[in-house]
Amino acid sequence: MRVLGIDPGSETLGWGIVEGEKLKYSLVDFGTVKSSPKDAFSKRLLRIGDGVAEVIAKFRPDVLSVEEAFYAANAKVAIKLGQVRGVVLYTGERERLEIAEYSPRLVKQTVVGYGNAEKRQVQEMVRLLLRLNSAPQPHDAADALALAICHFHHSGVAARIRTGR
Fold this sequence. Notes:
The protein is α/β, with parallel strands linked by helices. The protein has helices at residues 41-59, 75-94, 104-111, 119-129, 139-163, and strands at 2-7, 12-21, 24-34, 63-67, 98-102. It has a single domain (2-163), classed as Nucleotidyltransferase, domain 5 (2-Layer Sandwich).
């Protein structure tokens, strides 16, 4: 199974590809899709959609693991992130990927063991779990890899619930 993790962001969207089976997985690649805050928001959404589509075309993942929407103190920020998530989810569906969504707290709990972990803790655990020499940079890409890793840890449970076994 090949999983594309996405950490949605309107200026920097992190992505990471992890492949393997069950709890044996390894890094394929990671990066970001950047868009300029000077551009109209609609152009940024187009850049994000095109960037995610390019990653999917290049790496052919089976699953898209994306961060669930969360409550933000600033409603404007929450709406923009919702629009970015919408573009990501649309792109995943258009490419016929299985879609999995995980809360930020569950991702941190799964990867670090603590639901309120800080960004640097997530980066370090991703480094350890993927046996990397250095922590993935920037943190947006590390968060995306954490989302992919989270899917490996929870996909078996979800499959058993779906099949009733």
